[in-house]
Amino acid sequence: MRFADLLGGVVVLLFGLSVIFFSSQLPYASEYGPGPGLLPLWLGVGLAGCAIAIILKALKNPGRGEAFFKPRTRVGIQMLAMIAVAFLLLPLLGFSVGLALFTAASMRIIGKHGALLCALTFVGAAIGVHFIFGEWLSIPLPTGIVGW
Amino acid sequence: MDILQNLYMGFSISLTPTNILYCLAGAFIGQLVGVLPGIGAPTAVALLLPMTFTLNPTSAIIMFAGIYYGVAYGGTITSVLINIPGESSTVMTCLDGYQMALKGRAGAALSVAAIGSWIAGTISVVLLMCFAPALANFALRFGPPEYFGLALMSFGLLTVFGGDQPIKSIVSTLMGLFIATIGLDVVSGVPRFAFGVPQLLGGVDFIVIICGIFGITEIFNSIENPDEGDLIKQKMRLKDLFLTRAEWIASRWAIVRGGVIGFFVGLIPAGGITTASFLAYLAEKRISKHPEKFGTGVIEGVASPEAANNSASISGFAPLLALGIPGSPTTAVMLAGFMMWGIRPGPLLFQNNADLVWGLISSKFIGNLILLLMNIFLIPFFVMILRVPYTILMGFIVVFATVGAFTVSNNLFDVWMMLGFGVLGYVMTKLKYPIVPLVLGLVLGRLAENSLRQSLMLSGGSLSIFFTRPITLLFMVAAILAYLTPLIQWAMKSLRPAEVKAA
Question: How far apart are CA A45 and CA A13, in angstroms?
């Protein structure tokens, strides 16, 4: 965790420096007063300052603390990958089918639920998303090859 | 006497069968929308607005008001049961409400939220009715320096109470403030941090971020720590909905305090119900005899912000009706509705459309009562969600979060951004960076920046403007004290070993 804290501090520092860099390209003051670069610049300075404090604290702290990666972190990453794939498929499958497929797939792969329950969830979720969001709430959800 | 006559007139309008039906419909839709993460009151009102072209404006505004405060009730259910705030105003409820649910007191958390909301809501309507003109005048005294002071004080309080690592809380707040600066600068029209991406020119929508950092982040956290989700299988009986004597004693004054804080914060244009719930929670924690227990499932941590958000959602109508200034995104959409119906909110509204104003005010008594009953009777049905395995729920959470993010501007870019913020929230949680300050920074970011710039314009660039106006000075002193508290605590801790050594 000490290393993760250190790394986190470095990322915040880089982020703060980037904010300072890009803010410095915006006008700091305008004809009528403060410009659009005023607040972001000081936010960047604040972020960089806090990051240095976090880095120093991490360097001083000898304890290891809680581990950053846990045994089930891999499952979380698997879930993230599944969500990303589902989002990539949304334009092709449409929201109703795409999100229903994701729900059923996550139940099967992550939750290890039975095939029948997953299949029923797929059908139920597809109909639910279409009618609740698409029809009832009139959200213009993108349709895919199925047509809804 | 005028008030009673006007109230009588209001009830004669709001108690007609048609208006009761619209109030019921609004409360039910609000409750439903509040339960669905990512679909907020502004979206619901905006979606329903075109359907009210032919409606009587009084009926329509009664329905929209029902949605507005109904959402605050409904948002509590998801905050308590799945740790996802259905609305930003119920973010604070997650902290203790979800912990109570994990301890088997979900029913008590939901009951105290409903009862607290009802009591505070009723108090707020009475206060609104009696003191609206005077309170509106007081809120009118708030200029840009006061708004900046208020925002700074909120950030400071969050730094003090945000966790055991104040620096990380500050980083989180600064990140929220930074995200709020993305997009076209409202004063100069200069694009900031958009990097040529057209979708970023309008800024990053709050709903996109909240769906990501609460919905998606929670999924990752629950997958990684499956033990935390085990208690979701607990059974819920009707008797679990009743508060114990100790719980009622602990929460009754928290409800009153939350209601009063919510009322006053709601009066401030752009004060917002989210700020009200934040401040009420922080105030409750501050005066508590056991502040260290906050976040572990104390009932005051649910009662106070819930009372505040409902109270603020009612008093928030004062700036809209009396001044024509929307106090929140939902009332901003409602303002568009007023325009659509050919009505201009402002000081003259009370004279020219007294039936609408008093019909609306009186309908809030009815709406709150409907919601109280609805919450008591519907709670067991929503609590049934607890029996569903999280591995089933998580898929649906992704569905709600995705659709919620998509509805913001109907494009997939927001959906991807929502996922990005979900990952950011997950990493931040793992590194012990609190998420709530980021949300507050985001919500108050525009207000803080605009008021800072306007103040500096007024003072010709001098910071003295923040220390020469009484109300601003009060906020600034509170903010400075809040920021200095961790430093003082650190200094005292550092001194202690030295004293021991000397001894």
Answer: 9
